[in-house]
């Protein structure tokens, strides 16, 4: 049919090589120094099945245009160095495009010019497997959407492009509202289907140039190139929320969920991927806290206190690394006997320059930048461990009270963290008291109710901190499994002179009594206050009168000296 040779090799070694290649069944070309085909082995012809004679034509003509430069480079390198070189390109055959690997070996012929042998190997199957593998490691198995690691790649690309071109982009973090309830009640099969459908709907709500990733649970992230104004973000977000609010028909159910979205734009709201995602996430939680099924776009003014400056935030991240956070323990004593019943763990930040920074200052910051989850997990573990040492010194059981902030409470890992802290320290559940604020209960009552029941199922008790200063909706006292009310210092401070405060304390104490709740009065500073509270039936006291927040060593000392005075307890 076609001639397989346009000339005879004048080098006997090459002739020998060619016949070896023929025998081995390789697809081999011999090329001159500009890549013109001089010879094709039988297998090479079988591979391409040329529709016209190829001898005397450039091999490059058989290669996909985008890959020709790479071919050129490999070919030149082989000729210049006389070392083997290799390239992966797409090769046109009569019927298809194959991924092939071509290995070039160059030599100098009798006429002192360069020639090449090109061995071609079909790697299409390999390439397909590689692509499948690549897909598996970069996509979420359930929805087929990009996963966290591909999202990170795309974000880095978007950042690089934005920095180069000056065109901005935005990220949206979306979390389904009410998904957990459905997942828990109807099982993971239904939940999985719902996530798959949600993924398809969200993808449809976006443009082709946008990236949509699923980053875990019921959380999705979109990257929107070119969308930079609040209006643009709100339009896209509304489309996404509407898509989610359509009924989900998952036999035999018809189900409804919502979606809360937070947005952040490069470069105004963050100039790297970590900050952008963190700020969009904060905004998403704000959307949840302020009514759900809406989108909140991050803004430095709205989301940070005036005193919150970026350098302080950077210092906090540094402080975690340097171990600058510590705990003080304030005694909680029996109102009558004044015996220490437990301690409240209070966080402190020992800043190398500023000295002790108040939790009133850094907790809101940690709450807004997400660091509270890290800090809170540490507090929980450290306080439970510390309590063991306290008990040893006291020679009797004590409890430890730990403050839990809203963002921690929403963290899916919270329960696991608590279980770990209990298991690690060997505390009994009832020895741990979690202090939460009314706001936690009011912002997402369904989630709060479910989680509180999980917590109390482990015998861990719940206290309402700063009672009376929040919403003061009494309905939740009935709805939620609460064990302790901590009466805020605001109502204690002017006791017993203030008639109003005396009346409020009176009512709270009698309410607690009727509902079978224990009470702690906060911020008790003098004997008159203690006396009044004890007479009204307040069970426990916490304040400077009976003990300042102490370093663990000082707290241990207080326990030991009290024990020495307790002949019965130390028996
Ligand atoms: P809180 O939970 O209500 O803690 C009681 C606060 O009242 C503590 O302030 C304590 O030092 C102070 N206090 C106690 N007795 C008296 C008193 O007799 N007079 C006066 N004037 N104050 C008294 P602190 O330690 O500055 O903590 C402030 C708040 O920071 C805490 O209020 C709590 O909401 C938060 N916080 C502290 N540690 C943590 C923590 O580990 N996690 C979280 N999420 N929040 C924490
Ligand atoms: Mg507290
Ligand atoms: Mg309090």
List descriptors:
binds magnesium ion; 46% helix; 571 residues; Alpha-Beta Plaits; Beta-Lactamase; elongated; alpha/beta; binds ligand C2E; 3 domains
Describe the overall structure.
This protein is α/β, with parallel strands linked by helices and 571 residues long. It folds into three domains: 12-128, PAS domain (Beta-Lactamase); 143-303, 2-Layer Sandwich (Alpha-Beta Plaits), CATH 3.30.70; 324-563, Alpha-Beta Barrel (TIM Barrel). 46% of the residues lie in helices and 23% in strands. The strands form four sheets. Strands 13-14-16-17-18-19-20-21 form an eight-stranded mixed β-barrel, surrounded by six helices. Helix 18 (475-479) links the parallel strand 18 (461-467) and strand 19 (484-487). It binds ligand C2E and magnesium ion (MG) (2 copies). Residues 344, 403, 435, 465 line the site of one magnesium ion.
Q: Tally the beta strands.
A: 21
Determine the oligomeric state from the structure: single chain
- Provide the list of bound ligands, each named once: ligand C2E, magnesium ion
CATH fold annotation of the largest domain: TIM Barrel
User: Can you tell me the CATH class of the largest domain?
Assistant: Alpha Beta
Q: So, the CATH homologous superfamily of the largest domain?
A: EAL domain
